[in-house]
Amino acid sequence: MLTAEEKKQQVAKAALEYVEPNTVIGVGTGSTANCFIDELAKMKSQIEGAVASSQATADRLKSHGIPVLNLNGVGELSIYVDGADEATHLLQLIKGGGGALTREKIVAAASAKFICIADESKLVNQLGQKFYLPVEVIPMARSYVARQLVKLGGNPMWREGFTTDNGNMILDVYNLNISEPLKLETAINSIVGVVENGLFAHRPADVLLLGTDNGVKKLVV
Ligand SMILES: O=C(CO)[C@H](O)[C@H](O)COP(=O)(O)O
């Protein structure tokens, strides 16, 4: 039996196969993305650099001597590699456990291919069954947005004491019925004061690499 950590390392290594030489890549946030950064360091001379989805990721990339580039100064990224809090067989995701969902969504959108890496515990039949949905909100709109999320059937909890890299707040929404992720992603983003939500349904992953006891399982749609 492999530990969750060993499974993360397994998929982090496997993701290196998707790194094309002489390109700029996007890098996500979290413990699985950190494993990937540590692996990426071994081939850092082969890439031009990386765009980070958070300050924490930028710091870790820099600590390995990997050049961190501004998204506005580069064209389309070849790939985006990141973890997830939940993933379905359609490769739709919940992200934002680390609070970096908005920048993650931007970097994913700017990438030709999204390689999601996770241990197999993240695979679910329907989003929202195990994990809450993080929503980034403009601070003054927190209570208003929370009331609208209740109308959508959710139970929002303020992630008190946490500020995103964009200077905003996070509402973690429990008990949402996410049977129609595309519709819900749009509905939540239509609430004034919402910056982004952690549903990756309109921009799902292109490849999901899952760490299992029997090796890396690859899912594509
Ligand atoms: O969305 C994220 C951060 O905002 C992470 O990808 C997600 O929380 C998974 O993290 P980990 O790899 O530590 O399980």
Question: What does this molecule look like?
Answer:
There is one protein chain. Helix 1 (4-15) packs across helix 2. Strand 12 and strand 13 (215-220) form a beta hairpin. The protein folds into two domains: 4-123 and 202-220, Rossmann fold; 133-198, 2-Layer Sandwich (Alpha-Beta Plaits). It has 221 residues and is an alpha/beta fold. The chain contains six helices and 13 strands. The relative contact order is 0.18. Residues 28-32, 82-85, 95-101, 104 line the site of ribulose-5-phosphate (5RP).
Furnish the topology, listing elements before pairings.
Blueprint: H1 4-15, E1 24-27, H2 31-40, E2 49-52, H3 55-63, E3 77-82, E4 86-87, E5 93-94, H4 101-109, E6 111-119, E7 133-137, H5 142-151, E8 155-158, E9 169-174, H6 181-189, E10 194-197, E11 199-200, E12 207-212, E13 215-220
Parallel strand pairs: 1-2, 1-3, 3-6, 6-12
Antiparallel strand pairs: 4-5, 5-11, 7-9, 7-10, 8-9, 12-13
Helix pairs in contact: 1-2
The structure holds ribulose-5-phosphate (5RP).
Ribulose-5-phosphate (5RP) binds next to helix 2 and helix 4.
Largest sheet, if any? 6 strands, mixed
- Name of the CATH architecture of the largest domain: 3-Layer(aba) Sandwich
Identify the strand order in the major beta sheet. Answer: 2-1-3-6-12-13
Report the C-alpha radius of gyration, rounded.
Answer: 17 Å
Number of helices: 6
Number of beta-strand segments? 13
Q: State the end-to-end CA separation.
A: 28 Å
Supply the CATH class of the largest domain: Alpha Beta
**Average pLDDT across residues?**
98
Function: Catalyzes the reversible conversion of ribose-5-phosphate to ribulose 5-phosphate.
GO molecular function, one term: ribose-5-phosphate isomerase activity
Family: Belongs to the ribose 5-phosphate isomerase family.
Subunit structure: Homodimer.
